[in-house]
Each structure stands twice: as structure tokens, then as C-alpha cells.
């Protein structure tokens, strides 16, 4: 028996929260893609033997995504499955916060690498000090809201309970990501400009014996062109996804957007899976840090 006494045999699908049967193919595909990305991240870690603080949150996030889409497969079998609904709403809401945690930890190393005077507005350590607590608060609010909503549905109470707390967590995540994006763009803009200045004096510096060809500064600058697009893409996609989830849950489980599977596949699953694969190239080890 599903929530509010309904089951796939006793109630029409329009009586379910989503008003549709989640796609078997799409959700199975997302499970496979997140499992593949987790495997690749694990292989990268085993080869490079560094940045566990970046890899572990990503692996945990991938596990969360897999669990969430497994919950949606349960809903494919029975759109009124209470367990399936609670598993997917909690896991898929919380998991992306783990990816942003990995990004925030990575930013400390990036700012330290390029953090010469006037390049980074913040001290490299301040990125973690500021944004990791923000991510934790967002994660806490989303988890708390999911717990309240789960408890209310298990007790067959108001199904809107806890949703406002989840939305507050998502809004806080959007705001903190926006500030982070502004600081990131400022940092990379300054690095880009200073990189060309560095190249202009490079020949003189090499002849003077002050730097060597292919040295750390030169290597880091070259690899920045690989790292920056991938790292930035991951952040942008997660940001778009968070805005979508705010819009989706803004009216609780009674809104119109929550009943549309197409936007969910594109703006939830699609955004996050591409972001996770982008982080294979937006890995701090690409910059040799």
C-alpha cells in the first residue's frame, strides 16, 4: 500500500504526487552514468594518490544519486510507493551539496596556486572556511526538511510539511554558489591577464636564469585552459539545477513543475551527471596542485 491508502491497483496515476510513472530507461541510464563516473573518479584517485578531500565527497555524491534514482525506479514500478518517493526526494535533493563541497575544497588549492598578491580577493584558506560551512548549512536544512516531510508522510499528515525547510536550504545553496561564482570569475580573470604578462617577460626571465621552460608557473598556466572550462561548467550546471529545484518545490508537492518529467530529466539528472563528468577534467590534479 502506498501513501494515503493508494496503490497502483486502487488509484489512477493522476492521484500520485508526480502524476506520472518515472521513466525506466532514463532513471536506469542515470544510475549507470553515475556508477561509471564514480568508477572513473576512483581510478583517478588510485593513479594520482592525492586529493582525497576532493574525491571522497564526489564518490559519496554519486552514491547518493544512485540511491535516489533507484528510488525513482521503485516509483516506476509503483507510482504510489512511499518508500520510493522518500528515498528519491531526500537523496536527489541532498547529493549535489556533496559535489559543491568537493568544489569548495578544490578552490583552496587553486587559489593557493595562483594566489599571488592581488590575484585572489580571499586568502586561499578562506574559501574553505567560508563556503564549506555554507554548504553544511544548506545540507543540514535540506536534510532536516526531507526528514520532516518523510515523517509527515509516514504518519499520513500534511504532505507539505518540511518542504519550506528544504526550499530554504536550496535557496541558501543558490546564494552561496552565486557568491562563489563571482569570486571564481574574478580570480580566473586576473590569472588570465597576469598569465599574458608573465609570457611577455618569459624569454627574458629564462635567459636570466630565473625560471625554466616548462616550470610550474608555465605548466599551471597551460593546464588552466583545460581545467577552467570543465570546472566552471560543473559549477554552472549545479547552479542551474539548484534554481530548478527551488522552482520545482516552491509550491510544495502541489506545484505544476513537479508533475513534469521532461524538465526533471534535463535540469536535475542531466545537469548533475554532466557536472560530475566535467569534474574529471576539473580535477585539481590537472593543475598539478
Automatic annotation (TrEMBL):
The chain crosses the membrane at residues 24-45, 51-70, 82-107, 127-149, 161-185, 224-244, 264-283. One of its GO terms (cellular component) is plasma membrane. InterPro entries: RTA1 (IPR007568). The keyword Metal-binding does not apply. It is a multi-pass membrane protein. Its main location: membrane. It comes from the Eukaryota. It is found in: Membrane. Pfam families: RTA1. The keyword Transmembrane helix applies. Keywords: Membrane, Transmembrane, Transmembrane helix. This is Parasitic phase-specific protein PSP-1. It comes from Ajellomyces capsulatus. The lineage of its organism: Eukaryota, Fungi, Dikarya, Ascomycota, Pezizomycotina. The gene is PSP11.
Amino acid at each position: 500500500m502506498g501513501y494515503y491508502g493508494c496503490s497502483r491497483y486502487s488509484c489512477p496515476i493522476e492521484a500520485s504526487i508526480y502524476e506520472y510513472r518515472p521513466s525506466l530507461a532514463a532513471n536506469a541510464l542515470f544510475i549507470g552514468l553515475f556508477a561509471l563516473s564514480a568508477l572513473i573518479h576512483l581510478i583517478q584517485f588510485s593513479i594520482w594518490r592525492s586529493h582525497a578531500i576532493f574525491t571522497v565527497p564526489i564518490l559519496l555524491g554519486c552514491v547518493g544519486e544512485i540511491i535516489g534514482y533507484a528510488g525513482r525506479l521503485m516509483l516506476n514500478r509503483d507510482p504510489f510507493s512511499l518508500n520510493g518517493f522518500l528515498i528519491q526526494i531526500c537523496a536527489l535533493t541532498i547529493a549535489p551539496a556533496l559535489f559543491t563541497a568537493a568544489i569548495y575544497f578544490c578552490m583552496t588549492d587553486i587559489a593557493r596556486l595562483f594566489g599571488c598578491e592581488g590575484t585572489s580577493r580571499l586568502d586561499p584558506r578562506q574559501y574553505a572556511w567560508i563556503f564549506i560551512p555554507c554548504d553544511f548549512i544548506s545540507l543540514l536544512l535540506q536534510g532536516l526538511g526531507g526528514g520532516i516531510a518523510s515523517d509527515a508522510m509516514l504518519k499520513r499528515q500534511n504532505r507539505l510539511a518540511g518542504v519550506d525547510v528544504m526550499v530554504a536550504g536550496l535557496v541558501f545553496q543558490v546564494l552561496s554558489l552565486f557568491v562563489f561564482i563571482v569570486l571564481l570569475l574574478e580570480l580566473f580573470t586576473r590569472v588570465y591577464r597576469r598569465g599574458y604578462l608573465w609570457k611577455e617577460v618569459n624569454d627574458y626571465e629564462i635567459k636570466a636564469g630565473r625560471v625554466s621552460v616548462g616550470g610550474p608557473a608555465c605548466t599551471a598556466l597551460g593546464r588552466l585552459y583545460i581545467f577552467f572550462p570543465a570546472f566552471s561548467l560543473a559549477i554552472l550546471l549545479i547552479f542551474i539545477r539548484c534554481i530548478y529545484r527551488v522552482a520545482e518545490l516552491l509550491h510544495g508537492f502541489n506545484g505544476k513543475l513537479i508533475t513534469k518529467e521532461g524538465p526533471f530529466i534535463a535540469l536535475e539528472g542531466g545537469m548533475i551527471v554532466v557536472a560530475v563528468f566535467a569534474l574529471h577534467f576539473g580535477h585539481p590534479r590537472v593543475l598539478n596542485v
